[in-house]
Amino acid sequence: MTDPSKSSFLSGALPSYKNPPVNEVVCGMRFQVPDKLRIPHIGFLWDKLRADYPIIQHAQPITSVKGGIWLDEATGLPLPRVWFINKSDDQLVQFQLDRFYFNWRRRQNNYPRYDYVIRNFESVLNTIVNFFGEFELGELKPIEYELSYINHIPKGQGWNTINDLPGIFLDFVWKQTKARFLTNPEKVAWQTEFPLPEKKGHLIVNLKQSIRTEDKVPLFVSN
């Protein structure tokens, strides 16, 4: 595998917004399952990340492409997903048998922009590549990369009713004429998938409604 520290993901000028509604960014990789990786190895990985991510939590495993969860071949027990979290609770590394992610999460801080996220992802990637080499787990072989933005758009910021939705998402429109018996929708759940140029992957857009936990304000959530 090419040394990721020598091949930055940064390329070209990127748009920047004064007040982006980004609530969380997830940048990660799914890779071929290494035959030699065992649960105790995860502790050794945390030892390498612990200075920056001193808090550890278990999380429900993410299902495989086929819809199942990874099981230990010897015992039949499910293999965990582990979170390594920083002291500020705004960054974490997720790791399980077939993937890892770097997350930035909005707490009291502003979104630090893509450059910051991708550099932290690359730092974690380098650590995991070196970890695989040190413990002779084989080569880290990527299957796919993922970059997800989770945006929260609260009521009162660009919209007040669902009728305002086409003003936020220009491609989400519906025709309202006197000849139609249907009124405007009252709930929305929408997903669209676009192929990227040169078959470099897909852009998947999701939109749904939600309620912000801390103050019960209605939200549009897009990712």
Describe this protein's structure.
With 223 residues, the chain is of the alpha+beta class. The chain has three helices and nine strands; from the N terminus they run E-H-E-E-E-E-H-E-H-E-E-E. The protein has two domains: 19-151; 155-223, no CATH class. Helix content is 16%, strand content 30%. A nine-stranded antiparallel sheet has the order 2-3-4-5-1-6-9-8-7, covered by helices on one side. The protein is elongated and about 70 Å long. The model is unreliable at 1-10 (pLDDT under 50).
According to DSSP, the number of beta strands is: 9
Number of domains: 2
General shape = elongated
N→C terminal distance: 30 Å
Helix-strand makeup class: alpha+beta
Strand order of the largest sheet: 2-3-4-5-1-6-9-8-7
Q: How many distinct helices?
A: 3
**Percent of residues in beta strands?**
25-35%
- Average pLDDT taken over every residue: 86
User: Approximately how much helix is present in the residues?
Assistant: 10-25%
Largest sheet: 9 strands, antiparallel
Brief descriptors of the model:
223 residues, alpha+beta, 2 domains, 9-stranded antiparallel beta sheet, 9 strands, TIGR04255 family protein, CHP04255
Short account of what is shown:
InterPro entries: CHP04255. The chain is α+β, with helices and mostly antiparallel strands and about 220 residues long.
